[in-house]
Amino acid sequence: MTHMVIVGGGLAGGTAAEALRDEGFDGDVTVVAGEAHPPYQRPPLSKGYLGGSEGRDAVILHPADWYADHGIRLVTGVSATTLDPTAYALHLEGGERLSYDAVLLATGATPRMLPLPGHDLPGVMTLRRLDDSDALAAPLRGGGRRLVVIGAGWIGMEVAATARALGNDVVILEQGAVPLAAALGAEMGEVFRRLHIDHGVDLRTSVGVERIVGDGRAEGVVAGGETLPADLVLVGVGAVPNTALAEAAGIELQNGVLVDAALRTGAPGVFAAGDVANAFHPVLQRHLRSEHWANALNAGKVAARSMLGLSAALDDIPYFYTDQYDLGMELSGYAPLMSDAEIVVRGDVDAREFIAFWTDAGRVVAGMNVNVWDVNEDVQALIRSAERIAPDRLRDPATPLAELLS
Ligand SMILES: Cc1cc2nc3c(=O)[nH]c(=O)nc-3n(C[C@H](O)[C@H](O)[C@H](O)COP(=O)(O)OP(=O)(O)OC[C@H]3O[C@@H](n4cnc5c(N)ncnc54)[C@H](O)[C@@H]3O)c2cc1C
User: Fold this and answer.
1) If DSSP codes are grouped into helix, strand and coil, which group holds residue 258?
2) What percentage of the chain exceeds 70 in pLDDT?
3) Which listed residue, of 143, 179, 247, 303, carries a Cα 20 to 30 Å from 81's Cα?
4) Does the C-beta of 241 come closer than 6 Å to ligand 1?
């Protein structure tokens, strides 16, 4: 009997397990999830689940009995310790050895921690896991706490928004001049700066954090020569791909596990998907490691087909979304092409209701719709077409996006 093994109970791993059955595979499937939960998705952990408007059902992909009902062995709370690609074997904590025909590494990423004095004090947290979100929710839900967020990236900004909505005081400390500049550039990062300031966040940019202080637990953050009092400190400075299994197995790494468009590593029978995988993108003609929800979802499906020896390629246009206060946004496009692109805006930036297009020689390489809905497919069609479109037409709200293409 053929045996497919999936390492990691995140969105990529969970989706791959489901997709194996959807593709009609009726052999053995084992999911090894290091956390004590069935596979789950993370976006609600900084938004609705953290704030209390959504429950675990919005997070967990399927309850544990769904796996049993589909003949999938789900092992939770156990990590894979060693991968032996020559023997087609995976070893688990506790000593179990699994032989596989194909194995998927969907091990995700781990939050980066700053080597600051005081980083290990109780009350200093990162947010990646369901349990982290529960631990953060407990003090924040009651309101009236002082939260200091280090890093104005997506997770820091989302937690700040949720914490404010729950009635907490929030300071964000960012070393760059503008929040989210790495993802959006300065002009669009500014939209998010104003959003947070308008909602009462003390957002400080171009500031270096010196240390976290406290007697037995975090009580303050020293930054720019000032001590900011804190009941809780959230460090949101990015995540590092979990490559240890692959690395010890001698699989090629380069900013994650290096895979082709079919998500194959260089080792026969070993695949990688989701945040851990740096996959060759057939349209971009270069590798791209996307750390987003849609990538994990799509890659899980592609990996399943590929593991079954069916043709498959991860060629989607990268997609990301965020919700902060009353702002909802979707962004589709190729991050590596955005930094040198020109931005053309349709709509009203001050009212936070607009679409921003990143254009390269007249071609749309990315588009972000902010509080404008049902346009993402059209934005993706513009990107996919690679047609040159006059900026005036892009800007003109009277011309429906679908009519911009010849
Ligand atoms: C708080 C938060 C909010 C987010 N919000 C958004 C959003 O709004 N929009 C968006 O597009 N993206 C968002 N993301 C990003 C998105 O959630 C990730 O891209 C996605 O989780 C990646 O899925 P994955 O399956 O690759 O990895 P993960 O979800 O990280 O899952 C990997 C799993 O593998 C386990 N694992 C690791 N090593 C082993 C091992 N050796 N043995 C067994 N198990 C192992 C890990 O413990 C983990 O449970 C958010 C992420 C976070 C943390």
Assistant:
1) strand
2) 100
3) 303
4) no
In a domain, 315, yes or no: no
Contact, 177 vs 203, CB < 8 A? no
pLDDT at 252: 98
How far, in Å, CA of 307 to CA of 15, rounded? 13
- Three-state secondary structure string covering 362-382: CEEEEEEEECCCCCHHHHHHH
Task: Record the pTM.
Answer: 0.98
**CB-ligand 1 contact for 303 (6 Å cutoff):** no
Domain of residue 193, residue span: 113-235
Going by C-alpha positions, the residue among 290, 294, 268 that lies closest to residue 281 is 290
Residue 75 near ligand 1, beta carbon < 6 Å: no
Report the pLDDT value the prediction gives residue 395, as an integer from 0 to 100. Answer: 97
12 with 70, same domain: the answer is yes
Q: Which one of 185, 215, 235 terminates a domain?
A: 235
Q: Considering the domain boundaries, does residue 318 fall inside one?
A: no
Please indicate whether residue 13, judged by its CB atom, sits closer than 6 Å to ligand 1: yes
Closest by alpha carbon to 154, among 321, 298, 273, 299?
Answer: 321
**Pair 213, 256 in one domain:** no
The pLDDT of residue 341 is 96
Are 27 and 15 members of one domain?
yes
pLDDT at 71: 98
CATH of the domain at 337: 3.30.390.30
Ranges of the chain with pLDDT below 50: none
Q: Residue 14: CB within 6 Å of ligand 1?
A: no
Mark whether 123 and 104 lie in a shared domain. Answer: no
Q: How far is the CA of 130 from the centre of ligand 1 (A)?
A: 10
pLDDT score recorded for residue 406: 78
Which residues of 97-140 form beta strands (DSSP E)? 97-99, 102-105, 109-111, 124-125
Give the residue from 204, 235, 266 where a domain finishes: 235
